Amino acid sequence: INLQKATFTISAPDIRSLPAEGGIEVAFAGRSNAGKSSALNTLTRQKSLARTSKTPGRTQLINVFEIAENKRLVDLPGYGFAKVPMEMKKKWQKALGEYLEKRESLKGLVVLMDIRHPLKDLDMDLIQWAADCNLPVLALLTKADKLKQGKRNSEVLQVRKKLAALNADIQVLAFSSLKRTGVEQANNVICQWFED
Ligand code: GDP
Questions:
Q1: Cα of 35 to ligand 1 centre, how many Å?
Q2: How many other CB atoms are there within 10 angstroms of residue 164's CB atom?
């Protein structure tokens, strides 16, 4: 499996528009601005596979990228926008909830969190949910280049410790798209999920 083979398949407003179930999907989720698009571009070594720094509202589609036959990366809508009315949030987040709850092809979840403020309520909700349904999680602590090494390591250890309490299949890595930190390890975890 080579993530660099990723090609855009579809942007879906809801799960009915997704490719037929079957095969393996690894989904990427995170608060808006966590660095999800950058991570997807970095892992696939494609500059603009997932668009970065989009305005909220244009990001609420489920974007699907095919890696190989029946193996797909899925870019889920970001959550936790600050400046958006509740009603709009609800409508937007419907696709996210539906995908997570219903998609049988989902075999692994990458959760992107800014290393400077990880494990916010919505992140914890998502990770707890994944733990409850035995879905493996890779937590990428993004923008690791923003912290000095000591602080970076202590953040990783702290997050690992908190998540270890869930007794689930959860891996935690420091990640930087800018410096390519953690890219190889993250790639290995994701490729392993595709091979299982
Ligand atoms: P998304 O909303 O989660 O898709 O986030 P983006 O990938 O669009 O990134 C949000 C912002 O964080 C942009 O301004 C990126 O340039 C910045 N960013 C993303 N990854 C990194 C990183 O590894 N290091 C630094 N310093 N900035 C990053």
A1: 4
A2: 11
ipTM: 0.99
Q: Is 194 exposed, middle or buried (0-12, 13-18, 19+ CB in 10 A)?
A: buried
Q: Which of 32, 44, 46, 52 to mutate to test the pocket of ligand 1 (most atoms within 8 A of CB)?
A: 52
**28 SS3 class:** strand
Ligand 1 neighbourhood includes 182 CB (under 6 angstroms): no
pLDDT tens for 90-148 read: 766 888 989 999 999 999 999 999 999 999 999 999 999 999 999 999 999 999 999 99
Residue 36's Cβ-side half-sphere holds a number of Cα atoms within 13 Å equal to: 25
Structural domains in the chain? 3-195 (3.40.50.300)
Q: For 22-35, how does the pLDDT look when each residue is reduced to its tens digit (9 = 90+)?
A: 999 999 999 989 99
pTM for this predicted structure: 0.95
113 touches ligand 1 (CB under 6 Å): no
Kindly report the number of other CB atoms within 10 A of residue 188's CB atom.
Answer: 10
Residue 178 Cα to ligand 1 middle (Å): 9
Residue in 28, 36, 38, 75 to alter for ligand 1 test, most ligand atoms within 8 A of Cβ: 38
CA geometry: angle 80, 83, 88, nearest 5 deg? 75
Closest residue to atom 13 of ligand 1, CA basis? 53
